[in-house]
Structure formats: C-alpha cells, structure tokens
Protein 1
Amino acid sequence: MSSPLPPPHVVFFPFPAQGHVNSMLKLAELMILSLPSDLEIWATFVNTEHNHHRLLQCSDVASRFASHPTFRFKTISDGLPLELPRTEEQLLKMFEYLKLTARDVVREVTVPGTCIIADGFLNFLINAGEETGTPVVMFHAIGACAFWTYFCIPRLIEAGELPIRGNEELNRTITTIPGMEGRLRCRDLPPLWRVANPFDSLLDFGTTQIRDAPKARGLIINTFDALEGPILGHIQAHCHNIYTVGPLNAHLRSRLLATKAASRYFLNSLLEEDRSCLEWLDKQPPRSVVYVSFGSIAVLKGEELMECWHGLLNSKNEIVAELKASTITMDRGCIVDWAPQEEVLAHPAIGGFLTHSGWNSTMESITAGVPMLCWPYFADQHPNSRFVSEFLGVGLDMKDMCDRTIVERMINDLMVDKRDELQSSAAEKVRLAREAVIEGGSSWVNLDSLIEDIRKMTVGKQ
C-alpha cells in the first residue's frame, strides 16, 4: 500500500524591500487562513538576514506565525554587510546578488511537491524553477495599471514614443498603450524611462522583469477586478491564470471575520512604529488632518523638503507627518519617524493623505476611503499617481513639483475645494473593495482558485 503524498510546499520569495516583504507576508498569511479543511500546505518564507532581523525587532510575526506550525522562515544573504542601511542605491546591488545565488537557494528549499511564489521583479526565479521542475507563480506588489505600463515598453519604443527627448516632452501624451490611450503623459511613466537611449541599461532592466511574466504558471496581483478590470483584460491576452486577490489588507481582515477570529491590523514592518500619533489623532476633529508619508525608501532633502513643508504649514491644516528629518519642527500637528499607517488612515480624524503613491499605500488609502495627494518618487509610483487621479478620481496628482505655493493650493483642494467630489468617489471605491473581499466576492473566489491550482500544480511532482 502506497504512503499518502506529503502536502504541497509553497515557497514565498519576496524582493528584499519593505513594501515587497510586507505584501508577500500578507499573501502568505492570507493563504494559510484560507485553506480548505481537506488541505494542508507547508510554507517557507525566504527572507534576507538583514530584513529578518529587522522584522523580528519591529513586528509581531514571530508570535503570529507561531500558531501556524507548517510555516517557517528561511534566511539568506542579500550580499551586503548586515549593518549597512538599505537605501535606494543598494536595490540594484541586492538584485544582482540574488540573481547570482537564486538557483542555489531554490535547490535548497525545493522538495517534492513545491511551488514557488516569486516576487514579480525576481524574474530569474522562473528559470531557476524550470531547472528543478518547480512551478513558479509570480506575485506583483504593483497594480495592474503599472504592470501593463511596464509590459508595453517594447511597444512604446517600436512606436517611437520612447525614448523621451528632454524635459520639453514630459507633457506629451502617450497614445500606444492599449486601454490607456491618451490618458498617460510622458511624465507619468517611471523616471528611469527619461533617457535618450532606447538601449539604456535601466530601461532594459525595467522591461526584462515584466517581459518574462507570461512564462510563469500564473500571475498574482494585489488589486481587485472592479478597480482595474479593463486593464486586466489587456493583461489576460498575454498572461494566463491571473489571480486578483486584493486589497490584501482588507482581504485578510475579511477572512479572519469569516473564521470568527478577531479582525486586526497586520504588523509586517521592518521599521519600528511610533503609535503616539494615534493618541494625538484622538483629540482632532473628523477629517481635519492631512497624513504625510513618503514610504520607507524615498527621502526628501534640502529645498524640496522645505518647499513641501512650508506648503503644508501655509495650508492651515493639522498635520500628522512621517518624516525622517531633524531640521523639521512644528507647533501644530505630530511628527513621527514611522507611523502605523493602516491605523492612521482608518482614523476618523484623517481627511487626506499626501503620499509617494507606492501601491501598498495606494491600496490602503483606497480601502480606508481617504483621498490622496500624490507626489511620486520613483518606479511604479508615477503611473500609480496618474491612475489615482485620472482613472479613479480619488486623488490629485502633484508629480514633478516642489513649489510651496503649489503644495499649499493642492492641499487646500484636497481638504476643502474638491473635498466632497473626491470623498464621494473614494466612498464608492471602499464599497467595491469590500464587495471584492467578502465570501463570494471576486478576490475571495480568485484566492480559492489560486490555492486549488497550486494543489493541482504540485500533484505528480512528488
């Protein structure tokens, strides 16, 4: 009589940056919470030594995942000294190191019945999986709009819309991205595309990561059908098995409620959160405060920082700001190094969010119903900010500007002049997001399909 097959083994492999680790951990926990009663999954989360140390220091993952005995962390090097701060400048170095070592890591963690869920920017894991006969599903921490923009780079080059020939072309309209014709400008493309050479190495880097997506067994995106449906339709023409399972933060809480567990916020931070801002917010009137955060990588310096700050102060609004700058002080509002963002956005005192337009922040703001003023920094944040303003109508786009007069005017638009219009649109997106993550909703059904397809992928691989 043959022995029963071991359960499927899922390896989660994020890119080693705050937003990527955070969203991948949410996906891992969401999948574990959502398993059908007849299925057990063993899970390995590959984390760099530096990030894992920070995660244990600053989050509650050790206690949270202790209740899941089939879950384990696997730590690896990112090629940099542990004590060195991880900044934007090191991202490419870490990528190149992981590219060199990924095959050995995959061989080490792969057992019969393994499926790899790889970060969408670690495209080399597709080849590593092929070498070991391991199915690979890609997880993108960016939205469908940004994914499709990246995917269409070769089309833009072929049509002569890239490269961008100088700053005078930044307002030129992009016409050859299907589903987005005439709605993006050159300035809405990622800044690394602002190069004169179509063979530039950074432009090629951005193209390569997304171009390989159709080779994977599936594509997971932290979005929901009602938010980006038309764009998803275009992606489906190139990539099979697309699983839209977001918003991950709202979906997690929905699954917890379905199991009669207490709903909670999920702390996956690599930075220590300062919760004192919540006590300060408790004393403020409803919708009176602007929340300011530029994420874990972007750092405003010098003139840009001061222009932003004076614009905020001149707007006369109360401010809760997440700023890492010793030069900034204020006599109204609250400044912290790192805030519990989901809880801040959910607080009734928050009326608007000045954001760098990272996709996690965008989704968290959408699920909280908070209108955004978008000031993108790099990567997918530029198309995200345009999507928020032009496609969704839940925010204003302030890219490429650092003048205090413009900041003041747009904050006042966000909080006063255009407040009702933006708030109405934001409330509608909250409704759609909630419908997506309840039982029977699109994201709920898609996650169940993902889990079932992983079961099928791993049958016969054991």
Note: The chain has 18 helices and 15 strands.
Protein 2
Amino acid sequence: MNLDNVSIRKMNHADLETMARWLSTEAVLKFYGDVNSPFSLQQVEKKYGPRIDGDVLVVPFIVELNGAPIGFMQYYKIEKCEQQTFGYPANLDVYGIDQFIGVPSLFNKGLGTIMVKKFIVSIVETTDADLVILDTAISNPRAIRCYEKCGFSKMQKINNGRSWLMAMQTSSQTSANL
C-alpha cells in the first residue's frame, strides 16, 4: 500500500451519512461501539456535528484512499485529572486518539498502520502533545498489532480489564518526565 494514496482531512457535515453507514456496520461496531446499537443518521449528526463545528474539543477527521472515504480518526486533549488517574504527571500534555476503518473489505491490508502513523505526525506538528494514548479491546489483536507497529506500548489494563491503555511518546522531553 502506497502512503501517498492515503490522506487525512478534517471531517465535514457532508461526511455524516458515510459515518452513519459505517457506524451501522457490524464489523465496525464489533470494536468501535456496540454491535447491538447501530447509529442512525440523527445520532451521528448529534454526536459528530458539534465536533465538526468546533463546539466540542474533539477534532474529527476522515481518512481517504485514492480520494474515497475509508475511515475515521479523532484526537482530543486529555484532562489533567484524567491523565493523572492513568499515572501521567500533570506537566505533560497528553492527547487521546480513536480511529477505525469503515470499509471491512479494507481490513488487514496495512491501512490502519499507515493511518495511525500519518495521524501521529499530524498531531505532533499541530499540537503540544508530549504523549499520545489510546485504548483498545484486549480481544482485538489486529488493532493491538497495528498500534505496536506504530510505536505504541501496552501500559495497563483499563475498563475492568477489557481494554489496553497504550501510549506513545512524541517528544524527548516526555521520557525525562515519566
């Protein structure tokens, strides 16, 4: 897979129908949401519309392959009290990310690794992130492998042992503060 064929752009209101389609797909909801609760277009508009408009401090993006939408990504700054519950000092700027590929036929093709690597570069260039974290289901070995290939490490089990908190340092200053 060619890196140049994959691009990440800010999500806009025209993407909401595509997002609703992805979030009603069982293969996507298996690890991003709840298989028993597919999203309607109205639910997607209510949740992601304020993010698109900048009313919520979660920044959403669409991933494209050769110009066609194939996935979703978002980042957000972790609140200091929350990052301290994970054991990270308050002097670090910690960002969280979430992502998924919305087209199941594109699973297991290396796209997730390309997406995440490109996204991390963008976050480092546009924010003050010292550390990027994510959580993934322990039952999702495909995602865990992807994140480890991108430089994330398993830090601790969270969500009553159902998920891994994974982290990646984004600056040399971070290692001195951990």
Note: The CA atoms of residues 51 and 93 lie 21 Å apart.
